[in-house]
Amino acid sequence: MTDPVAYPRHPAHLDPYIEVLGPRMAVSFLVMFGGSPLWFPDDPRGRSAAEHLIGADKMRALGARMRSNLTEIPMPKNWLIRALHAEGLSVGQICRALKTSSTNVKRTLREAGGDKPPADPDQLSLF
Q1: How many whole angstroms separate alpha carbon 95 and alpha carbon 80?
Q2: Residue 80: CB partners within 8 Å, gap ≥ 6?
Q3: 33 neighbors 41 (Cβ within 8 angstroms)
Q4: What 3-state class would DSSP assign to 59?
């Protein structure tokens, strides 16, 4: 068994994927299918790459959470960069997995700064 990973907080629009698939499988699913339309059949029959990755039961459960059977899968690149980094991937591996530049990966990781929430610009500092 692998060590538990402290995944970064995910955006709310990823709730169905995280809740149904779990964070590790959601990362794999989003890397593979993010940014493309995907058909969620009412009765999966083992023909799709998505079903081979997550299984028929999870495909059915995830499809039940979607607005329609044909859904555009999100590509939350900034969250995926932080999640893949939390899994221990190097900058180069993240670049290849997400088809993005090392500049983008390094900037996203630097801006994340430990996954702290962004500072409110209207809030005054106590110190």
Answers
A1: 11
A2: 27, 30, 31, 34, 98
A3: no
A4: helix
Cβ of 27: how many Cβ atoms within 10 Å? 25
Q: How high is the pLDDT of residue 9?
A: 95
Tell the residue number behind the tokens 């430990």, with chain if given: 114
- Determine the distance from the C-alpha atom of residue 10 to the mean position of all C-alpha atoms in its chain, rounded to a whole number: 8
Give me the phi and psi of 4, to 5 degrees please.
Answer: -65, 145
N-to-C CA span, the chain:
45
pLDDT of 20 strictly over 90: yes
How many Cβ atoms are within 10 Å of 85's Cβ, its own excluded?
Answer: 18
Catalogue the E-assigned strands of the chain: 37-39, 70-72
What's the rounded mean pLDDT across residues 38-42? 91
